[in-house]
Write a structure and sequence with these properties.
single chain, alpha+beta, six-stranded antiparallel sheet, 6 strands
Length: 200
């Protein structure tokens, strides 16, 4: 295996245009072999695991290309699918190296509703949306997801609303961005309500 191990969160595109996202690298409890866990980013959005060596061989032999986001994604592409890069050059594209904004600062601003005050203007809006989307996916409770979603309101477009709906297993009806935003918001409020009832 002559390539670096894929980083969690990185995307690979098949020659036919379909994409998968790396979730993590896991160790097999029986033989200690490294396995890659990834999600296919097209319906039905299955999650798969396979030995890392085999995945890397298939990536080389079948022309899978690793991509990272430039923030100007066309059409219905998901974050990270538009710029081919060499695996040796992968760095976090969410916050520029010369920025003083750390991940913890971003998350704190997101959870406190202070994105506009603390973050806006320091990194591009598309990167705020992308990083906020990832924080929403990582949030442990529906209460946190709700706060993050409302903080991101002005940064969300139809593509991100659709991605959030898929991640939350929500079916969005046709409509404009405002209607779709309200639909996801209502679902999150319901999820949050039942989550807090269950914890009592």
């Amino acid at each position: 295996m002559d390539r670096n191990i894929p980083l969690p969160g990185s995307f690979y595109r098949y020659p036919d245009g379909n994409t998968l996202q790396i979730i993590c690298i896991a160790n097999n409890c029986i033989d200690k072999e490294k396995n890659i866990v990834y999600q296919k980013m097209f319906p039905p959005f299955d999650i798969w695991t396979e030995p890392l060596n085999r995945f890397m061989e298939e990536a080389d032999n079948n022309g899978l290309q690793i991509y990272q986001s430039t923030g100007n994604m066309p059409g219905n592409m998901l974050p990270g699918m538009d710029l081919p890069v060499n695996n040796m050059d992968i760095k976090s594209s969410v916050i520029p190296e010369n920025s003083v904004i750390t991940d913890s600062m971003f998350k704190e601003a997101l959870l406190n509703g202070a994105l506009d005050r603390k973050i806006a203007g320091k990194i591009p809006d598309s990167e705020i949306a992308e990083k906020g989307f990832m924080e929403l996916l990582d949030a442990r409770t529906y209460h946190e997801k709700y706060i993050i979603f409302t903080s991101l309101r002005k940064y969300l477009d139809k593509r991100l609303l659709n991605n959030i709906a898929v991640a939350l297993d929500i079916v969005l009806e046709d409509g404009d961005e405002e209607e779709q935003y309200d639909s996801v918001l209502h679902c999150l409020q319901t999820f949050e309500h039942y989550e807090t009832q269950r914890l009592r």
